Amino acid sequence: MRLSASLFLAVTMSVVGAGCGSGGRSGAATTTAPPATTAAATTTSGAGALQAEANATAAGDIPDNQVFLVFRDVPAGYSMKYPEGWAQQGSGNRVSFRDKNNVIRAVVSSGAAWTRASVQADLRALKGARVQSPPQAMTLSGRPAFKVVYRTVSAPNPVTGKRVTLSVDRYYVRKQGRRAVLDLGAPVGVDNVDAYRLISESFRWS
Description:
Blueprint: H1 2-29, E1 68-73, E2 78-83, E3 87-91, E4 94-99, E5 102-110, H2 116-124, E6 130-131, E7 136-140, E8 143-153, E9 165-175, E10 178-187, H3 193-202, E11 204-205
Antiparallel strand pairs: 1-2, 2-11, 3-4, 4-5, 5-10, 6-8, 7-8, 8-9, 9-10
């Protein structure tokens, strides 16, 4: 009996020890590693390239009699005009308005004032976009800004295979530690020049 009890005790201790050892190895193997950085895949401004929707309804110009409303983004600290009836998406620091494949988007972040070098760095990280013009220094609503034009091509329509090329006017604006990227996009061939000029010039920091 004493031998059997001793043998049972030895086997039990061996199993417990093996279990503890396995638990230790499992813990080491499942330690969560920090996620891989995505800095190379995102812009420094946080504003990726606008994309058209190939399955959206037919594109068209903003009509001459379009009514514009004023959008005030209190958390982000700015206001601007937008066409009445366009669908709003997002809130706070990232807001967009869309009608068919006409798109307006404002992305606000904190950071140093935009310079030509920082704008160029942002553009280098603009995945899926073909930059059409180098950064042009300008004034927007009386403040220093930069303007760039780029193009993107949508994914193919699942039925027709058609792709939509979007031409985007991008503005980099800032004020005292806050900066914004304003994108105004329309399908190539659509004439929204006057309407988009009105919208960009209406941008105001509050």
